[in-house]
Amino acid sequence: MTATGRLNWLGMILPLALVLGLELWLRTAGIVTDILAPPSQVIVALIGGLLNGTILAATLKTLTGAFGGLLIGGSLGMLLGIVFAVVPVIDRAMEVTVEALRPIPSVALLPVALMVFGFGYGMEFAIVGKSCFFLMLILTRSAVRGVEPRLREVARALRLSRAATTWKIILPASLPRLFVAFRLAASLSLVISITIEIAVNPQGLGYAIMTAQQALRPDLMLAYFVWIGLVGLCLNAGLLLAQRTLFGRAALTEEAR
Amino acid sequence: MKHLAFALTGGLMLALSTPALAQKIRVGCTSSADCGTAMIAVDQGIFEKHGLDVEMTRIALNSNIPPALLSNSLEIGGPTSSVFLQAVDGGLDLVAVAGASVMHEATNQGTVAVIRDGVTIDSAKDFVGKKVGVPGFGAYIHILFNRYLMAGGVDPAQVNMVETSFPSMPDVIRTGAVDAVASGGPTVQRILSSGTGHLGPRFVAELGGDAPIIFYAATRQWAEANPEAVAKFQQAIAEAAALAASDREVVIASVAKFTEQNPDLVRATPPSKYVAELTTDGLGWWLELMQKQGLLQGSVDPGKLIVAAP
């Protein structure tokens, strides 16, 4: 889809040709593979999985894990980000701690999370939450700091307290940027959630991919890939729509599209 | 209102009079036929007959089983001998409660090196300098492949081994990314049928072995707290093993159901041998092998790792 909502036929030529090429190659070359399947078989597996409800059940679990972590980690990160930006002393005091913990790859914490939380949502909430927490913290801090200085001057002229300045001036002014941060965190949460399921957690879409792969069902495995792509697209489209509705075109920077 | 009160009281009395439901035992196994006895015991109602409420979970990686046991995500798991011993060596207090699958002629013969066409490998020495795909470092096939190399006077370090999952083996052989793969199960037939590789050394069968491949394990804490459940589990597994030995179709149906593999694919795979009893000799065999390969750091006493059957 283009920005104007029309289908970009020109842009569709290459992906369609690739799909057709893959279909022809796999049908005619006679190769034995357990990681590729003709696109037609993938579509059949996708429809089958959707009809028997397994794909939707797995999607629900993944989204619960992803959004649970996003809500917990993201909201805490946002709150702390605001505090760090408004009270520079706290920011300086926490800088070493934040910079020491932030770079630890979330997935590297999986063995520890498995020991502590066991299988289930707890592990996903913790790991996804950790990723979203730091992302929201950093982006919120920079969004709040980036508020037009003249707005702060207005707050001073009005003799607003720090709390009132934050609530009445800084938050409304930084909301569009906060929403962009939220969108980034939402995509990240989905990626991390599926990674956890592929590696450890026996539930959701990632687990379904592993199961299909180990059952030597590449058609079903690829169907899950296609489905995850569609879920990601819908998620992004939904969030973009929310962004446009909430903040108008002012919030829509070039990168946001 | 009176009716409601009666209904509530009646319901409460009914609930109190019903015997408490058996504690749910979650058993975690990887997607292979090795835990076949537990799968059969679930499907054929053997666990239920022994008063056990068992639920099976597929675990993506075998090495995830020990931490899953420790975090109480599973009560019983099916680790490979190597994963179990490495976990115990690393300080996790696990015990083996019942045997699952053991090495035997059919699976030993079916675990082979498949060589890419155009490459000639007939003996351990021919592997020197070659790139070989193994399904997991420190895992069952890798350790047995190392044993074969060492028995043939080859240092495993002279072979360039890369981790290759089973499903990707036909592709890495076809594309020439590796010279050979150490493989087993349905993958061997898949590669042979594609006409891109041929059978190489039968690296397990050449040296033989009858040690356990996978067995059922639990934390010592859980096993000691639930001796009755452990005893019932052992009895159920022994019964399932007897059934599996007499009726292969039951095994195929249960394995296909649990792994979601096509039943024909399961049928084409060499059948597993299920033995419910565990011996210290079996574990000791692995211990010695792994110690020789430098895979264990401390000393593990196999005598303390098995919960004896009643």
From TrEMBL, chain A:
One of its GO terms (biological process) is cellular response to sulfur starvation. It holds the Pfam family BPD_transp_1. Residues 59-241 form the ABC transmembrane type-1 domain. It is a multi-pass membrane protein. One of its GO terms (cellular component) is plasma membrane. The chain crosses the membrane at residues 7-26, 38-60, 67-90, 110-140, 178-200, 220-242. It is found in: Cell membrane. Keywords: Cell membrane, Membrane, Transmembrane, Transmembrane helix, Transport. It comes from the Bacteria. Its main location: membrane. PROSITE patterns: ABC_TM1. Belongs to the binding-protein-dependent transport system permease family. This is NitT/TauT family transport system permease protein. The lineage of its organism: Bacteria, Pseudomonadati, Pseudomonadota, Alphaproteobacteria, Rhodobacterales.
Automatic annotation (TrEMBL), chain B:
Keywords: Signal. InterPro entries: SsuA/THI5 (IPR015168). Residues 39-247 form the SsuA/THI5-like domain. It is found in: Periplasm. GO terms for cellular component: periplasmic space. Pfam families: NMT1. Residues 1-22 form the signal peptide. The keyword Signal applies. It comes from the Bacteria. Transmembrane segments: none annotated. Belongs to the bacterial solute-binding protein SsuA/TauA family. PANTHER family: ALIPHATIC SULFONATES-BINDING PROTEIN-RELATED, TAURINE-BINDING PERIPLASMIC PROTEIN. This is NitT/TauT family transport system substrate-binding protein.
